Amino acid sequence: DAGITQSPRHKVTETGTPVTLRCHQTENHRYMYWYRQDPGHGLRLIHYSYGVKDTDKGEVSDGYSVSRSKTEDFLLTLESATSSQTSVYFCASRPGQSYEQYFGPGTRLTVT
Amino acid sequence: KQEVTQIPAALSVPEGENLVLNCSFTDSAIYNLQWFRQDPGKGLTSLLLIQSSQREQTSGRLNASLDKSSGRSTLYIAASQPGDSATYLCAVDTGTASKLTFGTGTRLQVTL
Asked: What percent of chain A has pLDDT over 90?
């Protein structure tokens, strides 16, 4: 295991509230990613980071922001949660010299 | 825009059977292709990574092939076992920071 944890593992929140999901890795990996998984869509990239304070948008970034102040932590924030953001969120990381990505266990988010 | 398709969406086979899972992608300009396994309620586990210059990779009973020019990859599982039951996902890496584009997966059930 690459030592990737996500918190919380489950969350229920109301429409309009801000939500922050945390990804923590202990492998000193340079790259980190946030994906969402929805039925019929597979996994889609939200944002990624290629170093501390270096982030960029993925395919479905609207309504999400990220921050990476330390190598080990990558935070995903839903500015104002909507029902369309109900999903399972996965974090992944990889070292700079390898293409293989290691995934966390996921966070199931329900927006009511 | 890269699109990844996996056929079939679901497959049920008896134990001991050899099987092939298919993955196709629309843009042949890829850096690598990765196969993952996902158990229900869990994160993704990397199975095999094939570089764009390679034709195949093997790990135990698994063999993955890549035909970049035709936009196809196959995952061959030999002598299937009930423990192989899971969803298998393929993903293509188009190179920029290794952003992966995923297929929607093939759900495999191996019966006794």
From this structure: 88
